[in-house]
Amino acid sequence: MEKHNIPQLLDIQQAHQRIRAYIHRTPLQTCAAIDAIAGCQIYFKCENLQKVGAFKARGATNAVLKLSGNLRANGVATHSSGNHAAALARAATKVGVKSYIVMPSSAPEIKKAAVRTYGGEIIECEPTLAAREEMLIKVVNETGATFIPPYNHMDIIEGQATCALEMWEENIAFDSILTPVGGGGLLAGTALVTHYLNKKAKVYAGEPEGANDAWQSFRAGSLIPVYQPKTIADGLMTSLGDITFQLIKTHVKDVFTVSEEEIVSAMRLIYERLKLVIEPSSAVPLAALLANKEVFAGKNIGIILSGGNVDLSKLPF
User: Fold this and answer.
1) 227: left (phi > 0), else alpha (psi -120 to 50), else beta?
2) How far apart are CA 252 and CA 30, in angstroms?
3) Most buried among 47, 124, 252, 268, by the most CB within 10 A?
4) Within its chain, how far is the Cα of 39 from the centroid?
5) Which helix or strand (DSSP H or E) is residue 203 part of?
């Protein structure tokens, strides 16, 4: 990975200016009751209140807006069953661009409906990664659309970094910031902007034990994907990409894993105390903090609540 391709602080600041009219500047919230349980001061960055209900709106919007006119003309494409699908469809529609979203036939109807609402054209395929990638290639070849991946892409990472940029602009002396990690776009962007703005601050990730590729890769120093992840945190089942891994390996302090029980417990705590609707993936960083209190005791901690797209009929409590 060539150094000049890595977004610099000015690039991230320009990305924030580029997308600001299309996203929310989400609030930071605190909760004395959770602070007392955790033994530290926590500031929750509420990306569950973001457009499309997740931080993915940032990266997708940045990537679409950076496309040149001739590339925009044929639209954009991706394969996703989650928040990136809706985020890309919305970003494309906002600038008058066609979007083609390859989704597995097994994707929840609520997620397909979201993509259609935002103007995306869904192309269904068999529920395997190979089938998704094969169908995406076919769609790109037939339409000339530009493929915008969900995380392993510099423009996506640059956009996701604007979330932590907003946190640092609040002039809070964060000792650490925690994010969940799936494909690694949010974590990589958070680590990058934190490195530029406060080299003393540490960035950590929380990850489910049943989808622990980042934990394994971080310790091995090389990518170790998980092929059959199993976790309630469905947004974190994706394995790291080569670009996100390099940034994480360079700028992240550590990756913590948590059990399913710990995820559910942290999720319930946020519902009960913060009164916020979050998806299971969002609870993972708090679960990681609560399982490692000694690391964060007495410090100022930022936690990114990555999204709020949860099927309320299937809450785990």
Assistant:
1) alpha
2) 24
3) 47
4) 26
5) strand 202-208
- Helix, strand, coil tally for the chain in percent (to 5): 50, 15, 30
Checking if the pLDDT of 38 tops 80, the result is yes
The pLDDT of residue 1: 52
- CATH code: domain 3-54+154-314 is 3.40.50.1100
Tens digits of per-residue pLDDT, 171-217?
Answer: 999 999 999 999 999 999 999 999 999 999 999 999 999 999 999 99
Reply yes or no on whether the pLDDT at 18 is more than 90.
yes
pTM of the model: 0.95
DSSP secondary structure letter of residue 22:
G
Q: What is the CATH number of domain 57-147?
A: 3.40.50.1100
- For 146, half-sphere exposure in the C-beta direction (CA atoms, 13 angstrom radius) is 19
Question: CA-to-CA distance for 270 and 278, rounded, in angstroms?
Answer: 8
Beta strands in 17-164 (DSSP E): 28-29, 41-46, 76-79, 99-104, 121-125, 146-147
Q: Where are the alpha helices (DSSP H) in 169-312?
A: 185-197, 213-220, 242-251, 260-269, 280-291, 293-296
